[in-house]
Amino acid sequence: MSVKHAILTLLSESPRHRYDLKVSFESMVYHQWELNAGQIYTTIDRLVRDGLVEETMGDSSELKIYRISEKGNEELFAWLLQPVEKTLLKDEFYFKLLCAKKISHASLQHMIKSQQEHIIQTIFQLQKLRRSIDPTRENEGILYLIEGKILHLEADMKWLSMFPHTT
């Protein structure tokens, strides 16, 4: 995930101070990803340095307010239009499986069964999260994200069931 582009997205909605960026980001992703304050602060400093964000002082407080620059908008829109590279074989579980097969690991079936159980738990968590979100126009993005992740996990379950001697 690109913290840089998450910040640019939030600043394209409205100018904000640093803490508001943290709170707004966590609200945007329904508290499924946490950002620490230091990560926000260092990213903002780089965005200001690179001319993607401008710093001003707030009218009613001493907090610095950040707004996206024209260059920042161009960067955000260019990033949104770029296709996302999918790593073909760099998934951690796939790599573990490759290593286990290479050494003829005796617990391969246990590995697969544990992974299947983990996937099922994750699907249940996502389904619970999906049910907790009102299906409003404002929530469409997060609902599509959840649905996409569930579909990927279901494909992983199907793939794992193709291994011999798994149930």
TrEMBL record:
<dbReference type="InterPro" id="IPR036388">
    <property type="entry name" value="WH-like_DNA-bd_sf"/>
</dbReference>
<protein>
    <submittedName>
        <fullName>PadR family transcriptional regulator</fullName>
    </submittedName>
</protein>
<dbReference type="InterPro" id="IPR036390">
    <property type="entry name" value="WH_DNA-bd_sf"/>
</dbReference>
<dbReference type="InterPro" id="IPR005149">
    <property type="entry name" value="Tscrpt_reg_PadR_N"/>
</dbReference>
<feature type="domain" description="Transcription regulator PadR N-terminal">
    <location>
        <begin position="7"/>
        <end position="76"/>
    </location>
</feature>
<dbReference type="Pfam" id="PF03551">
    <property type="entry name" value="PadR"/>
</dbReference>
